[in-house]
User: Fold these one by one.
Assistant:
Number 1:
Amino acid sequence: MEEKELTELIDHYLFGRIRSQDLARLEYLRKTNPDIDLQVRESLEAFRLLKYLRYKQLRQKLQQIDATDGSNGKVFMKHRWMLATVLMVASFLCLWLWTEYHYAPESVASRYFKAAPEYFMLYQELNDEDVSRWVLATNAFDQKNFQLAIDLFHPFENYEQDQIAAAARWNALLAYFALHGPGVVWKEEVIQFQANTIEPFRSESIRLLRTINSPWYRFFISRISDNLSALKPRLM
Amino acid sequence: MSDVFPVNLTGVYISPGKHPVENMHQLDLTPYLRDQYYLNTIKAGGLNGEKAIISLYTQYHKSVKNIVSEVIDIYPACRTEPDDITHDAFLVMIHKIQFESATSRSLKAFWIGIARKLIRNHAKKLKRITLVEELDEEYGIPEISPETLFLITEENQQFENFLSKSGNRCKDILLLWIAQYNMDEIAKQLNISGASVVRKMKSACFKKLKILIRKNNFFNLRTDER
């Protein structure tokens, strides 16, 4: 057997890719020729050592992957905490700004305001002058000119028709609320109004009082809003 | 080596039923198909084999490590780190795939199975655990024990030093050869002019290595063979 052929045979044997008839041949050669046997044994030993080196190298690669994963994880964790903090601060700011807007006396007054539609006024047979005064009052309220709105709604409070009188009184109370907030006097006026008025103003006034007396509203308006109002212009 | 082929991931794959499968991302969705690809590619070795080994490790190592940690907790006597066991088991698996033609439908399960055996054997070796009598049960000791394969023994380190002295070129060629790179790939990787040159260099290096072993008589040539 040529040396080249023997080397190939041993290579296949080392890699475990030897065919069964070649293996039988090699075994026979090893038994009959001590030099070949020694060569195979040396090759096996050298191969084992090379495998040791290969697995050592591979293990280092695996450790590198682990190290990279670890550092990536740390960066991700760091970024995740930063992101969570930013989101929390942003959420808090959004909530605060929304609450500030939602519970501002002007916003509350606008939501509860009752603008009587024109057909209603025609049905109630209001004269032209009264209609135009009512429209003026409504416009003043819409334009947040609350003092003018109070002045214009005030004459309607003694109107003959209950609906017009109640609407005027309710709107005037709301305009006062928008100007001065929920003071003690205003609350007493609303309670009195609620006792003597007709629907839907009674329900509306009850709802408004319930909102104003709610713990969240009192907490926000009386504690936080006052404390943070100095910060708000800067943040805005 | 030539009868195993890696699945072409980039081109259109024609199925046995002659249906072109253009979306090869299905490999990402079918674990068994993906494992079969890893198995074939690692068995074939070479550059693609190396990439597949790294990819396989990256794919499963976190979940395997978690399971290994849980198994180690069951055996308080086993004082090894989950990382070490995971690496050992991975290397044993690669050895079995490359040199013993091992097959498995799920490489992750195969990996975990080897890790479990290593942990049990390790715990048993320390003899600090009381197991229920299981007289005839073998814990499936791997034919290649990780100690002999991977431990950095004094002998192995001496050999490594000698090999480094004999030239890094030789070391590189032999390491690529053992990773089943073909001669063309080795030539390309190490910027050598051609495959025939590499073949000659490899033979010379391997011979040199055997002479080195014989001359220095590091090891009593073992009688136990593969």
Number 2:
Amino acid sequence: MKALTWHGTRDVRVENVDDPEIINPRDAILKVTSTAICGSDLHLYDGVIPGVKSGDVLGHEFMGEVVETGRDSTLKNGQRVVVPFTISCGACFHCQIQQYSCCENSNPVEKQDMSATLYGHPMSGLFGYSHLTGGYSGGQAEYVRVPFSDVGPIVVPDHLDDDDVLFLSDILPTGWMGAENAEIQPDDTVAVWGCGPVGLFAIQSARLMGASCVIAIDHYPHRLELARQLGAEAVDFRTTNVREALMEMSGGIGVDAVIDAVGMEAHGFAPDNLLDHAKQKVGIGADRAHALRQALLAVRPGGRVSIPGVYGGMADKFPIGAMMEKALQVRTGQTHVQRYSHDLLEKIEQGELDTTFLISHRLPLEDAARGYRCFHDDQNEWTKVVLKPGMTSTQEKSS
Amino acid sequence: MSTSRTATLAGSLVTLGVLTAISMRATQKSKGSPKKRDDAPDYTHKKPDAGNTLIGRSVTIRKPREEVFRFWREFSHLPQFMENVESVHKEGGFTVWKIKGPAGCNVRLVCRVTDEREGELIAWSSVEGSDVRTEGCVTFTDAPGDRGTRVSLTVQYDPPAGEIGRFIAKLFLREPAIQARHDLKRLKMLLETGEIATSARLRSQTRAAQKENSR
């Protein structure tokens, strides 16, 4: 089959690799119909996530048609399903209390040592996201093996297009959980750093949860415009003093909740970020946590901090004093996708959530390497890339 | 040859688990040993007592205690989750373990059960005719709430070539503590989910297939 494989920093290629097989009883094989490139795939592309090996198949946002099932799978051939990027067994202590992204049984034993050393505990398995999280082949391919297929995949109705439901795999529940972790109350003023897909979905979710004012922070005009269309007020950090603006826009109180949808590769020329850049370049495992530092200083005393943005290593000059002295609550984590799948599917069906507005490009799988390059280099225009195995280049469209 | 054999022995022992805990405790008592520094398990001390090679590891499995106990007590199940153990079979009142190491080097252990309490504990020890001396004990206790069963394995062994043997074993990633942790996690996966997670894309790439092929 054809698949997008990683070969090094900014080197991904579409190659022929072996088709996946059913291995364990609860497995299923999908024929992928749509798969997206995620902002967090760019961390792999930039080589800032450890444990990626040459030849690894990337992709953790995908959906498709069931073409083969193991003995204990509950899926049937021909069903259309969206697959959560988190692999969860459904049976362990964490899965039972709906902490699906903390599953103890989905990361193969021999792969657990690295994340256990880094983080104190092993991570769960994730699709196509380095050997820290299992080394599972991802969904930017024609076919994919889905373990625990009786737990993760959600069957979607035929009247919804792939584009309507594809983002149930990651960025929609991630944005939703980002807002939920901010414990938004009616009348809140909420600030969201980063207007990538997760930030945009967090903005939409925060509005739906009753926030009276959402402030979006980014530097790409097009992304800020998308945020405005969702009802947010835009702040361009290149031209505006963000903390001063947030204080003024919240009437001198400070924002009630902050959401960091940026993560470990913050943009901008703030002094702390330039220093972080240098440290990340030399590969000492330092994250660029500028957005998070700013968020911790901007949030009002007693406020809430939610971090859906991905971090993988260490951050220094971390304002721990602001966190303690201002009595902040901090919540974060990889998304417990399965916890939200059904409710969010219902909201899509009822038209409460718009999931397609951010798709800027639809490309054949064969063009995936170009998709990565443009998504990385032209973030203003390329807001979200969906890859369609089987699509021909002449059908390529940009909305 | 000596290198791979050493690695094999150390690794193997792990799986075997071994006994110790009980005999050690007995020894300590009879010596009227000094009061324990704290309530943590002995094997978590930063400086293990010289001469003792004791390892221990616990895992909590979300299954009833009786079920976990019975699965373990049927020793022929052990190769399903113990990576180095090729087979375990009964011979008279003993169990014979065939353990595999790098470079096709096999180790044979003849063990007898030295203590057994239904649903609570199994202890065993190697006897004459074994390639290595080792003892092990596994205990089963109820975990708080509905978390299932806490399984704790302690193993004591004579390191094949002392410190050097363990150093070499570590290079082969068969250092007993690591092996014990991996084996217990595989047991947890097997009992909780009915399968052992693998990220292989092809059946031929799984560890189970590779274990089978290398026989």
